[in-house]
Design goal:
By secondary structure, the protein is an alpha+beta fold. The protein folds into three domains: 2-28 and 102-257, no CATH class; 38-100 and 269-320, Beta-clip-like; 329-370, no CATH class. The chain has twelve helices and ten strands. A hairpin with an 8-residue loop joins strand 5 and strand 6 (266-268). 40% of the residues are buried.
Length: 371
């Protein structure tokens, strides 16, 4: 990704100042019959009212929600999902229609910047990731929780302090200081962390040139002013930089590869992205993309369906094997923000050789409960 993405962004920067906005069609909307109704969703939300907006929004999108509730994870940082009763192998846990997911269709279909984002995509490998980050940042800054996907966007880790309750507890190298990155020098994680940060910094410049006008206009409208004063422009630019970093963190840690598409064509799947990681042999869910019958003309009939891969006991946390199950520990650290398992092998050894004793965010390497 590193060399191809960097070359793409450098090429894109050459033509972006000359690009003019083009209007495209609005994102596709759809309605579908569902097995579970509002009562099931509200029952799950009752455990923590902060989750109700997300679950209610999923219901409006036509999602199906089985015996699942949300709460603080028991095995990792941030949120987790739990079985509300005993679940049999193969039983539906939840399903999410494509219309509720965020992917390239949404980026390229945006009425303000869709054409420019589409041009990024076709320029080469890496453009899909940049386009997806661009639409995430734009929607969050322009519409926030009031937008059509606001309840879902509000659950994403936009910076190290978001959401204010701190339940995401999302770590990532994009939020580390230079000193924290330098603390990894000499370890296998150092070069990857530096590479990711450099790529995202370059991507932020490209994305800012595309969405900057839309963001500043939204800020003006919220402030009731017909023009932008210097302070508003500066704040918008700073917020774009922060939002782009948050968008890349969400993509790197939470996106899933869409079946039948290229590896870089990722999308965010609400609720599925809240499940904690486990190795393939220890995970208890499976997710597939399925076509369904009875879809209306606006519906492509695609749903992400999540079922139990084995029997799950009531109260047990739902665990998913991330795409990077075979990644070495240092790549897990830089790409996902954590290192799984008790054995971290060579990665731990390289840090210990330098007598660092700690990872950049303060977890002691020999404290296995944090791994």
């Amino acid at each position: 990704m590193r060399s191809s993405l960097a070359s793409l962004l450098l090429a894109a920067a050459a033509w972006l100042p000359l690009a003019a906005p083009f209007a495209t069609g609005p994102p596709m909307t759809r309605r579908r019959p569902r097995r579970s109704g509002v009562a099931a969703l509200v029952a799950c939300a009752a455990a923590d009212p902060r989750h109700e907006p997300l679950l209610s929004w999923l219901e409006r999108c036509g999602s199906e929600l089985g015996p699942v509730s949300l709460g603080k994870s028991r095995i990792g940082a941030g949120y987790g999902a739990f079985a509300t009763r005993d679940v049999a192998e193969g039983e539906l846990l939840f399903s999410v229609p494509s219309s509720a997911c965020i992917g390239l269709y949404d980026a390229c279909g945006d009425e303000d910047v869709g054409e420019q984002l589409a041009r990024l995509v076709v320029k080469g490998q890496g453009g899909a990731t940049v386009a997806l980050a661009g639409i995430l940042a734009k929607e969050w800054l322009c519409e926030g929780t009031a937008g059509p996907r606001g309840p879902f966007l509000a659950m994403l880790p936009w910076d190290a302090e978001w959401p204010p309750e701190g339940e995401q507890e999302q770590e990532h190298c994009l939020w580390w200081s230079e000193a924290q990155v330098d603390a990894l020098e000499g370890s296998p994680a150092y070069a990857d962390a530096v590479g990711i940060r450099d790529e995202v910094a370059l991507a932020a410049k490209v994305i800012k040139s595309l969405i900057g006008a839309s963001v500043r206009r939204a800020y003006q409208q919220r402030g009731g002013m017909p023009w932008a004063v210097a302070a508003d422009v500066m704040r918008a630019d700073d917020d774009i930089d922060k939002a782009v970093r948050g968008a890349f963190v969400a993509i790197l840690t939470r996106s899933f590869t869409q079946e039948g598409l290229e590896d870089e064509e990722k999308r965010l799947v609400p609720l599925l992205d809240m499940l904690q990681h486990a190795a393939l042999a220890e995970s208890n869910v499976r997710h597939v993309q399925l076509s369904t019958e009875g879809a209306d003309e606006a519906d492509d009939g695609q749903r992400v369906v999540v079922t139990a891969s084995r029997a799950i006991a009531q109260g047990e946390e739902l665990l998913n094997c991330y795409d990077g199950d075979e990644y070495p520990p240092e790549t897990f650290l830089t790409r996902f923000g954590f290192v799984p398992g008790g054995e971290v092998g060579e990665f731990v050894a390289t840090i210990k050789e330098k007598d660092k004793g700690r990872l950049p965010f303060g977890f002691r390497i020999d404290d296995r409960k944090n791994w």
